[in-house]
UniProtKB/TrEMBL annotation:
Binding site for Ca(2+) 1: D52, D54, S56, F58, E63
Protein name stated in the entry: Parvalbumin
Role summary: In muscle, parvalbumin is thought to be involved in relaxation after contraction. It binds two calcium ions.
SMART domains xrefs: EFh
Family classification: Belongs to the parvalbumin family.
The species this protein was found in: Mugilogobius chulae (yellowstripe goby)
MF (Gene Ontology): calcium ion binding
Superkingdom field: Eukaryota
Length: 109
C-alpha cells in the first residue's frame, strides 16, 4: 500500500468501505476515518506527494477522480459529481487544481 507506515491499514479499509457506493464520498469523513486528519503537516505533505501522480506540485481533476485508488488499488474511481465537489472544496484560489497548502487545509477541515 502506498501509505504504509503513514496510515493504519484497518482504518484505510474502513474509510474505503464507508464510501464504496457511488456518490457517497465525503472528504471530511474519509480523512477522519482513514486517520489522515490527525497526522502531522509532514505526513500530510507525504500523502499529497503520493496523490500527485504526475509530480506537478498540484492535484488535478484527473488525479482526484482516481483519489481512492491511491489508498487501495481495487477502490472505485470517484464519480464526476464527487470529483467536482472535491475539487471545489479544495481549490481555494480558483486555479482548477489543489496545491499542497490547499490539500493540507482540506485534510484538516
Amino acid at each position: 500500500m502506498a501509505f504504509a507506515g503513514v496510515l493504519n491499514d484497518a482504518e484505510v479499509k474502513a474509510a474505503l468501505d464507508g464510501c464504496s457506493a457511488a456518490d457517497s464520498f465525503d472528504y471530511k469523513k474519509f480523512f477522519k476515518a482513514c486517520g489522515l486528519a490527525g497526522k502531522s503537516a509532514d505526513e500530510v505533505k507525504k500523502a499529497f506527494a503520493i496523490i500527485d501522480q504526475d509530480n506537478s506540485g498540484f492535484i488535478e481533476e484527473e488525479e482526484l477522480k482516481l483519489f481512492l485508488q491511491n489508498f487501495s488499488a481495487g477502490a472505485r474511481a470517484l464519480t464526476d459529481k464527487e470529483t467536482k465537489a472535491f475539487l471545489a472544496a479544495g481549490d481555494s484560489d480558483g486555479d482548477g487544481k489543489i496545491g499542497v497548502d490547499e490539500f493540507a487545509a482540506l485534510v484538516k477541515a
